[in-house]
Design goal:
17% strand; alpha/beta; two-stranded antiparallel sheet; Rossmann fold
Length: 225
């Protein structure tokens, strides 16, 4: 059995930094990959299940990116593989596009952080006029992936990593309903008096492990595992 994960920075494991790395190295450093992937919720869940995992998430990735990345994976998927698709859906207002020149995905979350006044104005207008389209794109992504998994008998574990639109389709394998991982860990931080979030708002090691335990218990009750 193998877990195949899709999502944004919350699945990627942003802010999980190996304490043994040289000071100044960030979480995207090549040498940090084993630590980051092991300590993110996907790696923690795989450890609990005693199985392997494949983390295909990307920081700032959109739900369109998740859909397309899943499609690329499915094209290479063998029907005999005992894989479980794991998705941490991101905020629906994000968007992504493929850059042919650099042969990689581009995410608006990185570009709009730059000091480009024209882009900021254009992006603000896009958000204002495209809210309905963003919601529709997210619903399409969820419907596409869940339909493909259902037809091909692929098990799926999914949840909202960040604030999202209400789930239009009442999938039985949707953890925490319309709640999201970030808000759940904020509440757990208060209720349990433990710190589950890093400075940038992403889950820290304890947060990823705690949420993985929640997913594991829920998936067993749902008989997904």
């Amino acid at each position: 059995m193998k877990l195949v994960g899709f999502g944004c920075s919350f699945t990627y494991g942003s802010e999980l930094l190996d304490p043994d790395l040289v000071e100044g190295d960030d979480g995207h450093h090549y040498d940090n990959i084993p630590y980051r992937e092991k300590h993110c919720w996907l790696g923690q869940l795989a450890e609990m299940l005693g199985c392997s995992f494949d983390n295909r998430a990307s920081p700032a990735g959109s739900n369109l990116f998740i859909q397309e990345e899943f499609g690329d994976w499915f094209d290479m998927h063998s029907p005999d593989d005992d894989d479980i698709v794991c998705i941490g859906w991101t905020n629906h207002l994000r968007t992504s596009w493929w850059n042919d020149e650099e042969f990689r995905w581009m995410h608006d979350g990185f570009i709009r952080s730059k000091d480009e006044k024209h882009f900021h104005a254009s992006f603000k207008e896009w958000i204002t006029l495209s809210y309905g389209r963003c919601a529709q794109a997210t619903n399409h992504a969820k419907l596409f992936i869940n339909s493909v998994c259902q037809v091909n008998n692929i098990k799926i574990i999914q949840f909202n990593a960040l604030d999202n639109i209400p789930t239009q389709y009442k999938f039985p394998n949707y953890h925490q309903g319309d709640q999201n991982m970030q808000d759940v860990l904020r509440k757990e931080t208060i209720n349990l008096e433990k710190n589950f979030l890093a400075l940038g708002g992403h889950p820290n090691e304890a947060g990823h492990k705690h949420y993985a335990k929640m997913l594991h218990c829920w998936a067993e009750v749902k008989k997904i595992l």
